[in-house]
Design a protein that fits this description.
Elements: E1 13-19, E2 24-28, E3 31-36, H1 43-57, E4 61-67, H2 76-89
Parallel strand pairs: 1-4
Antiparallel strand pairs: 1-2, 2-3
């Protein structure tokens, strides 16, 4: 959460697309905001929200393509955690 002392903080906006399923997720500051499965939802809506949020906040939108996790019980929260760990290592 940002407060007055965080005036130089940036917002990390990530649009993640999984292959081959096409599932998409919007992750902001390592928190899952919204997701969609193309078979059930309008995945383009998630992309549009991500683009609009990036413009509104004046922040870049990171587009990330990843393979869908092999484990059947994967979660978007797990993907967000993996991305945070990868970012910390770079």
């Amino acid at each position: 959460m940002l407060n007055e002392t965080d005036s130089n903080a940036t917002t990390a906006i990530k649009l993640v697309k999984l292959a081959p399923s096409g599932d998409v997720g919007l992750i902001v500051n390592d928190h899952v905001v919204m997701t969609a499965e193309p078979a059930l939802d309008d995945a383009d809506h998630v992309e549009q929200v991500a683009e609009n949020l990036a413009v509104a906040l004046g922040e870049p939108l990171m587009r990330i393509e990843r393979p869908e996790p092999e484990a059947e019980d994967w979660t978007w929260e797990g993907i967000a955690e993996d991305l945070a760990v990868e970012a910390a290592q770079t």
